[in-house]
Batch of 3 targets.
Target 1
Amino acid sequence: MTEPIGVAIVGCGYIADAYRHCLPLHGESLRLRGAFDRDSARLEAFCRHWGERAYGSLEALLADPEVAIVVNATDPHNHAPVTLAALDAGKHVYSEKPLAMTRDEAKALRAQAAAKNLRLAAAPCNLLGESAQTLWKAVRDGAIGAPRLVYAELDDGMIHRADYRNWLSRSGKPWPAHGEFEIGCTFEHAGYVLTLLCAMFGPARRVTAFSALLVADKQTDEPLPHPAPDFSVGLIEFDGGVVARVTNSVVAPYDHRLRVIGEEGTLEIREPWDYACPVTRRGVSQGRLARYLERRLGGLGAAKPLPMVRPPAMKPKRGEPTMDFARGIAELAEAIRASRPTRLDADFAVHIAEVTEMLQYPERFPRPALVESAFAPIAPMDWAR
Ligand SMILES: NC(=O)c1ccc[n+]([C@@H]2O[C@H](COP(=O)([O-])OP(=O)(O)OC[C@H]3O[C@@H](n4cnc5c(N)ncnc54)[C@H](O)[C@@H]3O)[C@@H](O)[C@H]2O)c1
């Protein structure tokens, strides 16, 4: 039997509940030893709801020899200090995204992990989901011939007009609107497609981006001192020659379509946040009638769903997460056990952080921005080869 690896969560906010919900999916592999939040009311609510142990301080959590992996689920401004403290205490770290707020900060974290001979991995982990693995396998198997172009939308609707004040996590934490608007939707969301695209098409080499703050007054309860861009669009050129246009906004209507366009057709997933999202394929419209139908109806016949590489491992009920947030931690734990690199390792996380910063803050880089970081090719999941 596999000995479970001890995990502790730092940051008991909105998303910590989703992590806790997903951890039992990996019961054999991971054991939650406890949690800490510097806000004692939040910590108490989390631990009471889930029946978990509350550490009295970050130092106490980091001093627990049963904890091998620290899950950093703090808000992004606290990612770097908490990750550094955990590495300094000799813990492996799985960080929520973005790994850090700047490329340089991300590189410093990676250097510290290497100096300490510890693993550093980062969310998002939807690349490890059934839907993403099915898409990737279809690309590898030539389902659309040579891939050329990607259109990825991460438009989340007008969040500031939505009733987000009523969005509560399982232990009662409100969705952190203030923080999300200050961090920016690109920092918050781009990773969900960048991880897929970088894994499939190789490191990004050049980024040409534009971002803007379109709605400065988000009508938050407290004013936003530094609202981040709420719209970005970037063109990413990959090593292998594929070009991707990635759009992020909390302005345009909800649309999370990811389309990979090849010489022989297009693959599409409508929701990269859903591990069970079908992957559909549509062929290229060639003849006159087919092109007419594409103009009028969007294509000849329905786009065909491809068989999933395996049935989705999670079956969420209404209101439950559609992503297994703990799969990245389980992947890290398996990598530690097997002494192999983890698929979401520090090089990959630095690369995603760098490209994300280029998308959200293009003015910080030359134009086009040349991506410095790279990563070793990532292996598909064993069950998706
Ligand atoms: N909200 C979402 O829908 C969502 C979804 C996926 C991922 N994420 C990511 O998860 C992370 C957390 O997001 P959230 O929505 O849960 O934020 P949140 O603001 O609700 O929770 C963050 C928690 O971290 C705690 N914290 C901050 N610094 C700390 C420190 N030094 N020590 C201990 N506790 C500390 C805060 O008190 C707070 O309770 C972010 O990186 C975010 O990008 C959020």
Note: The first strand starts at residue 5 and ends at 10.
Target 2
Amino acid sequence: MVSLSSVHWGWCALDFARKGRLLEQQKLSATSPPSADEQLAFLAKLQRVFAEGDFTSTYKFALLMALADLSVEHGQDDGSDLRLSIRQVAEQFIALYWHHSAPYGSGGDGTNSGVLIQNNGAQAAVLSALEDICDRTGTSTLTQALKNPQYNELVGKIATTVSAKPLKYMQNFGGTTQEFLYKRDGRGFICLKPGIPYCLRRFHPLVQQLSRTHWIDHIKSNKYNRSILGEGNNLEDFHFGTPRRSLVEIAQGLKKVDGNRCFYCQKTMNDKDVDVDHYIPFSLYGTDFTHNFVLTHASCNRSKSNTLAARPHLERWIERLTRHGDNLIEIGFTAGISTDIEAYFHVMHWAYGNAVAGGASVWLEQGKYQSVDNTYMGILLAQ
Ligand SMILES: [Zn+2]
């Protein structure tokens, strides 16, 4: 999930000189990816976190999800470490917990409606802080909150909680600390250890799903939530079925940039047959970036579904960025969506890299797929 906050309004999509320098730095600092044994050791440790960790609140699950997302958006596919500010982690927390701060349930069938408790004692401080900013500023959506002057203060408050709670206790096993994921790196920063960003990128779906499942179980097992939950519930949808952003505003902006031609088949669309598609499927990475949206026929969108797009589309996407990068940033700015092209490129590398590693097929056109190979990574690295 993104750092909705790492919105870099001033970034120029065509600042390839800067990107070139970044890639040079990456090459200079590149180290080998973790070996198979090291990756297994990471998975074994992750299993220990879930099996032996002391979960008095849901924070550690959020922390794992946040670190996995930040690794996708900023990490490398080699053995590098990754320095992160605790404020970056805090912003991920805000995005993750935002929906949780709304009352759950209708209050029907003998249940009460209320905000679910996510701590074994009093309500988790992160949720109280989110409820507080909504009450004080009258904001109801995260997009509104991001634009509110009090958002910075909120990030600072959440960062303090993140530092004092989950970052402090995540790596505790049986009373001792084993720094297998990160270490503190100066005031306000942590550093993911060498190879950890690689593992969190490689095993991102696994980390996310394990964390979500345990998070939901934690809420269900809290006795204070029983009167709200009742018998049946749809907690997973409520907490993690991130409602897709209203795409009307984005569609209007994209139409000015792309006209009425379908991004995939390049044929004309009529107004009744237009979808806004997530180029990297929403099911694969559920954070919105302005560069990830394209206009398509509804039928092309349905056919592509949750698959990555094949080479001609990737090349077209890059060409579009070259021609319309600044317009896309403007659309993102208006809609309150991240315009961080650097982070989005990392998401692209991650998505296609995992597809290559998993021997996946990618979508070419209605009913036609291709095998994905390393040449895709070459196309992306050339940018
Ligand atoms: Zn089409």
Note: The two ends are 24 Å apart (CA to CA).
Target 3
Amino acid sequence: MIEIRDLKVKMKSLEFIFEDFRFEKNKVTVISGRNGAGKTTLLRVFASFLDYEGSLKINANVTYNSQEPVIFNRTAYCNIVYPLKVRKLDISLYHDKIIEYAKLLDIEHLLENNALKLSSGEKMKVSIIRSIIFNPDIVLLDEPTTHLDLESINELTQLIKKLKSKITFIIVSHNKSFVDDLKDVEYKVGGKNVLS
Ligand SMILES: Nc1ncnc2c1ncn2[C@@H]1O[C@H](COP(=O)(O)OP(=O)(O)O)[C@@H](O)[C@H]1O
Ligand SMILES: [Mg+2]
């Protein structure tokens, strides 16, 4: 699915070095490493937002769910259907799925509310549904649990388990029980050079 070889990313005076790895289909891979180790950097490389050196092979479509999701000044429902609109897909065919996922994450009652007025955790749930609704091959979740309460983390865990046979998840998270519950494979990052 995603294969990296001799991958390096330069970031001002730092150079991140990533060990060779294959991210496998339908496995939940958890990316671990300390603050500043380059986890978000790696996800942004996968999402084609950053330049890199070395080899990166991706034979699938990838969606990046940021730590701080970009939310539009529209209803939660409008935010969720945005990727369907962009792809000119028939939104009515996805309505039941949206309701199903919104129920699972307990935001069904908020779908007609302005998404900018939602709490951080609710915004994250909207953003997560928006990133899975069009059935991408790979979803990159960057610290999805930060603003979620315990119950919401359990609901997100159930959603990911439900979808993992169809969608490959690559997740950055420091929440131990969330990670332990979901992780099939772990990939550690932390190699870096300080450039002079
Ligand atoms: N656009 C940028 N310009 C300069 N430095 C950056 C930029 N983005 C990230 N960094 C730095 O690169 C390091 C790795 O960042 P990041 O990948 O976000 O770490 P994390 O593993 O915590 O997700 C951090 O020290 C961060 O400050
Ligand atoms: Mg990060």
Note: Residues 2-194 form a domain with the Rossmann fold fold (CATH 3.40.50.300).
